[in-house]
Write a structure and sequence with these properties.
Strand 2 and strand 3 form a beta hairpin. With 673 residues, the chain is of the alpha+beta class. The chain is elongated.
């Protein structure tokens, strides 16, 4: 049969056989002697000699792939830095208080950059591997399959025994989801407590000056009880002292009647606040006793009475020698226990005498505020702690300082008040006596008994059980967890002074917006904030797993770069570049007929050429190709029986029938129901 020819096809054949390959490696993989050709001056001007082939590490270093590799390193370092820096940071103010961003968002950006670097690295590596394979000699099927790995995941998973390092490198672009998932899994939010994690300014409405000649109404004729009552301001202090104290903390009022503002919700604000208070100056003596043996030494039938507890307050008025009034505390308490000898109850009695002098003190303040919803619901209030109790005060603890529990006396507030005047110190004495004045005595008539007056003594001296012991002459008040009675009492005195600072000038009954106009004192306290916060927590096991996955991905991609130095020009997997390598005439440049340099140089010359895909003119029917627009025409629509298109259409009709049948069955079943 005579061979038919048509325009365009003969050109392809002639171009394909025009030149012999100059590769040092044959199509069968056998090495040929490397040829180094030196052009003479005349040949340099000949446009047919356009070869540019410069193999070697320095000339062919894969800068694009290397930039992808460095992008992976930088993006991975970014992800690790994000997870490391965000660990144990608060959700509401990381990385910036005004612009908080979740680590997952930043990790997603880092992962996208990492994936971009991986795709770049894999792309150049696959191109190098493909062209090296072609350089060494290969079958068209192998070249086609290696090229398909670069864009088809289906080609990779169906490669079977033909799976190679090229398919493995291409697969790594899909494997990147593993490290990105591990990085995302590495961070979470937890609820925890942070101590002193920030500063906050708290506004405190508390008095710093004791009012002089105020509160205590004097008696005209009763010198034993010089103060007969107190005014309304002190009455409000007593009400607050009785109803607003729990567990040693003051309960602040709600809303605009509160005394402390601006502490963040659900947090504790700790600092130091100035307020009215006291300075203590105490003397202590102790004496060993045994009331049981002392009673036995007396004559029978004689009634005996022994002091167990005595607590009272008196006013020490201002005089010429002492130009200030103060409260005098006199206290006695006995601690006894069962003796080894019958009828014996040994122990010791402690006597303390303290001057309580008005002063301005510094309170260690802690404002414990609940959530905004809890405050609005009025079920929970703000708690105010105003001391730092470092531990239990053992019996007999020395009182050699002016204050306890880390309160600090800043300066005295001397009130020159005398007997018969309206008196602030007299009001203090009156209130303290009504709250704590008490006594207890151990007596013996026909048997041992105890006489108690005042609530304070009743909470100290009590029976250990319901059974009555007529011979009991001891009361062990030094029990585990109980403080020295004098220390416990002075804590209550400090509580009274703190409450007086809040309530004495009427601030809690005045709306906060009107207090400044009423000249009520306030101060701003710089506090450290402690409380329950939501913070980020990084699981570094997941971070390690992500790093291992990233390292494995990079290591499995690197083999496709092997031998890059054997190539003499930059290469890609672009279809035009590959077509040009197969000698397609339509890609052949006019200037450099035998060019083997970078394809970008060729593309600058041939890039403006117009081409079109269709049926080649003059070719047998069905012969499709890409050529100049005047050499192709739009193909006729002809479907032959048994063609792939017919089979696909039949398959689609079958699938549609199956889906339609299932839908009809479901609809019919629902209708019957």
């Amino acid at each position: 049969m005579e061979r038919q020819t048509y325009s365009g096809v003969d050109d392809i054949e002639r171009g394909a056989s025009r030149d012999q390959p100059r590769s040092p490696i044959s199509s069968l993989g056998e090495e040929r002697p490397k040829i180094t050709y030196q052009y003479v001056e005349e040949e340099k001007e000949d446009h047919d000699h356009g070869i540019d082939w410069q193999p070697g590490w320095r000339n062919q270093w894969p800068w694009v792939g290397f930039s992808g590799f460095m992008t992976i390193i930088i993006a991975t370092a970014m992800a690790v830095a994000i997870l490391g820096i965000s660990n144990h940071k608060r959700v509401k103010d990381w990385p910036f208080e005004k612009y908080p961003v979740q680590p997952n968002v930043l990790l997603n950006i880092a992962n996208q950059i990492q994936n971009l670097g991986l795709i770049t690295m894999v792309a150049q590596g696959l191109a190098i591997a493909w062209w090296r394979k072609a350089l060494r000699g290969s079958s068209l099927q192998t070249l086609h399959q290696n090229h398909a790995y670069s864009y088809s995941f289906y080609a990779i998973i169906t490669s079977g025994r033909k799976f190679n390092v090229v398919a493995l490198a291409a697969l790594m672009t899909k494997f990147a989801v593993v490290d990105s998932t591990l990085f995302q899994k590495a961070t979470k939010t937890v609820i925890t407590q942070q101590t002193a994690y920030m500063n906050s300014s708290v506004t405190a409405w508390i008095a710093t000056e004791w009012p002089q000649n105020s509160g205590g109404i004097p008696s005209k004729n009763d010198t034993a009880n010089p103060i007969k009552t107190v005014d309304a301001a002190w009455a409000s202090v007593i009400d607050a002292y009785s109803g607003k104290i729990a567990n040693g903390k003051v309960h602040d009022l709600l809303g605009a009647n509160a005394s402390f503002f601006d502490c963040p919700y659900r947090q504790e604000c700790s600092g130091f606040v100035k307020g009215i208070g006291f300075a203590f100056k105490c003397n202590t003596t102790t004496e060993d006793i045994d009331y049981g043996l002392q009673h036995l030494s007396q004559q029978g039938g004689v009634e005996s009475s022994y002091p167990l507890w005595d607590l009272s307050f008196n006013t020490s008025w201002a005089t010429t020698e002492k130009p200030y009034a103060s409260v005098q505390l006199n206290m006695l308490y006995a601690d006894t226990h069962r003796g080894e000898q019958a009828g014996s109850c040994p122990g010791f009695v402690t006597r303390r005498s303290c001057e309580i002098r008005p002063a301005m003190v510094e309170y260690p303040l802690t404002v414990m505020i609940p959530s905004e919803e809890e405050l609005e619901g009025k079920n929970i209030v703000t708690h105010i702690k105003f001391y730092n109790q470092t531990g239990n005060a053992d019996f007999g603890t020395e009182l050699d300082s002016e204050q306890i529990d880390q309160l600090k006396v800043l300066e005295y507030r001397d009130l020159e008040e005398r007997l018969g005047e309206v008196s602030t110190v007299g009001a203090l004495t009156y209130v303290l006596n009504n709250l704590y004045s008490s006594n207890a005595r151990l007596v013996f008539g026909e048997e041992w008994d105890i006489k108690v007056e005042g609530s304070q003594a009743q909470s100290i001296f009590f029976a250990d059980s319901d059974s009555d012991d007529a011979n009991r002459c001891y009361y062990d008040i030094d029990k585990d967890g109980r403080d020295d009675p004098a220390i416990a009492l002075l804590r209550k005195v400090n509580t009274l002074s703190f409450v007086a600072g809040l309530y004495l000038n009427g601030a809690p009954t005045t709306d906060v917006s009107k207090r400044k106009a009423a000249n009520m004192p306030s101060q701003t306290v710089l506090s450290s904030v402690t409380g329950i916060v939501e913070e980020y927590d990084t699981n570094f096991s997941y971070v390690a797993g992500a790093l291992v996955a990233t390292l494995a991905t990079v290591l499995l991609v690197l083999p496709v770069y092997w031998g890059f130095w054997q190539l003499g020009r930059k290469v890609t997997l672009g279809p035009l570049e590959i077509t040009q390598a197969f000698g397609a005439p339509i890609i052949a440049p006019d200037r450099y007929k035998n060019s083997h340099g970078d394809f970008d140089h060729i593309l600058k010359e041939v890039g403006d050429r117009r081409v079109q895909y269709g049926q080649l003119r003059g070719a047998p029917p069905g012969q499709m190709g890409i050529a100049e627009p005047h050499n192709v025409q739009y193909p006729d629509t002809v479907v032959r029986v048994g063609s792939s298109h017919t089979r696909e259409r039949a398959f689609g009709v079958g699938i549609g029938a199956v889906l339609g049948g299932i839908t009809a069955g479901l609809v019919g079943g629902n209708a019957k129901s």
